[in-house]
Amino acid sequence: MTSLPPDRSPAPAALPPALPGPAAGSTTLAAGLRRTAAELGLDLPALEEKWERQVEFHDDGGGRLVTVFALPEETGFRVRCRARGAWLAGGVTADLAAVAWAVAAWTGGCGLEGTRETAPFIRFRPWALDHEREPFDQVELAWRHLIDSFHTSPGDRHPHVLALLEAAHAQPALRRLRPVTSHFVLWFSTRATFPYTRAGYSIDPHHTGWYLVRDKGELIARTATPEEAVLLTVAALPENTGPAH
Fold first, then answer.
1. I need a surface site. Which of 93, 98, 107, 108 has the fewest CB within 10 A?
2. Residue 103 — φ and ψ, nearest 5°?
3. Which alpha helices (H) appear in the chain, and where do they start and end?
């Protein structure tokens, strides 16, 4: 495979116009990516067709993965980049050539900033750069992924849930526990992996705007802010709870 060196990326200006209409099925998406890569002179890794509208690319043993989804009604493509055990970056574009450049950059060894330089539609949050330099542990990654899911669609339609997650993550006693959600209700586990073991209260960011604090289903308090709910939860934690393992 022809790799893109980590310290130098092709200029985004070299991207040709979007190819017409690769869309409905994964076969068309796969064929369109192969054709586009050939026209650009890119030697992409072998792709794997997962199911309708999705393909994956893996690098040669380095633990890097790119998934490409064809969005409905030929509206574009969603790209996600994974490395070091975490989804670190992604973006949406209508340009299949930009998708091919992103795949080539990421699977070829470019870092986050190099991949974004090559394919400017790729986005990532500051924590991803930190994890790229020095990987987080499993629990911290769970927090980052959960919080990130409410920064992007469709989770970004629930800002009150994001506010709760960020308030809980800001508390060291809760940050060392594994966050778990079910129907937006947040609770905490002393086990880092499934099956989880519940510790302390749960917090329901209710659609009315209240934050409902419960102990094994029993309502303990209603608070107007997530910070109040979180402080109640921290105060009720059994002594020496955590860290999750």
1. 93
2. -60, -45
3. 26-40, 96-107, 112-118, 126-133, 138-149, 159-169, 172-175, 226-235
What DSSP character marks residue 6?
Answer: T
Residue-level pLDDT at 50: 84
Residues 165 and 72 in one domain: no
User: Looking at the domain assignment, is residue 106 inside a domain?
Assistant: yes
| pLDDT the model gives residue 95 | 96
- The DSSP line for 93-110 is ES-HHHHHHHHHHHHTT-
Confidence label for 181 from pLDDT (cuts 50, 70 and 90): very high
The reply to whether the predicted model has a pTM over 0.90 is: no
217 inside domain: yes
Domain tally, the chain? 2
* 7: Cα separation from own chain's centroid: 25
Q: Are residues 80 and 165 in the same domain?
A: no
Q: How far apart are CA 200 and CA 104, in angstroms?
A: 46
**Could you tell me which of 60, 128, 69 has the C-alpha nearest to residue 99?**
69
**Cis ω on the peptide bond leading into residue 12 (within 30° of 0)?**
no
Please give the angle made by the CA atoms of 231, 234 and 239, to the nearest 5 degrees: 155
What does the alpha-carbon distance between residue 197 and residue 212 come to, in Å, rounded to a whole number?
Answer: 21
> Which amino acid type is present at position 229?
A
Q: With respect to residue 244, please indicate whether it lies within any of the assigned structural domains.
A: no
Altogether, the residues listed in the chain come to a count of: 245
Backbone angles phi, psi at 213, to 5 degrees: -100, 125
Sole residue written with tokens 């992924």: 145
